[in-house]
Amino acid sequence: MSVLSSRYAFVLQRLAWGTIVLWAVLTATWLVIASLPESRMVGWGTVEMGFGAAYETPPGPLALYFDWMTRLLTLQWGQSIYYEKPVLDIYATRLPVTMSYLVPGVLVSTLLGSGLSTYTATNRASPLDKVLSVASNVGLSVPTFVLAFITLTFMSSTLGWIRIYDLSLPLWHRQNATRSLLPIGIIAVNFFAVQARHARSETTERLGARYVKTAQAKGAGQFRKAIHIFRNTWPSLGSLVLGESLGLLFLSAVVIEKVLLVPGIAVATFNGFASGDPMLSFTSVFGLVLFGVLGTVLQDFTRVLLDPRVDD
Q: Do 52 and 103 fall into the same domain?
């Protein structure tokens, strides 16, 4: 088999695997929603939930399954029973709010965590490496909700802010952009610790590699060695962002939005799960799994292009 055909086969295998995983998770989620009762008592009233809230008379199980999957893929997501508005409108208004602090926080933490840890791990005895090690351990040991409550106290008592985002103003208005620094900081602190530990571990494993020893024999300094190592570790470090830490990011976003009253999509999907809102719950699972699968496939595709060992 030629090199090109073997690479195509590898990519196709990973795409097939991703499709199967996506289908399996969505089917499992559908089964969970289908097992929910059609209503429940809340206070003195009855609230509809599960498929009982989406259909006046639900069809048979097989017809319900195919109808639900068709509605998902054709974006016929209907109404949210919790928010009493179209599900697509919820994503359109709330997703940009979440991304406005999540993306900058992840970028800052990834660049600093990966870059500094890769550099300092090439000289384990340096003071900077020890400081970074202590900082990552502290960041891992402090839960997100603790940082969120500290931020809430500081925000209300010191700054006098009642809320982070004012949706009556444009998202990138100076007030919203300034106040978003608080949730950005929480995400950056938490994810910096995760990324720093991962980068440190990956770098340490490669210090004895032949290409590192060759570079050192040619007189490469610490910075040059760090660049050589980073070129070989960045696919693994990228996979941490695209797949392995996706659950951590989602849970962190839920805590931040719940505590700081941020009107984002993470807390909306949490409320959807808690209330048995069928389509809001289902679409959130679809989005998270799809993002994770695409991230994994992208990582594998990059590996095919850059790593000749895939052909072996």
A: no
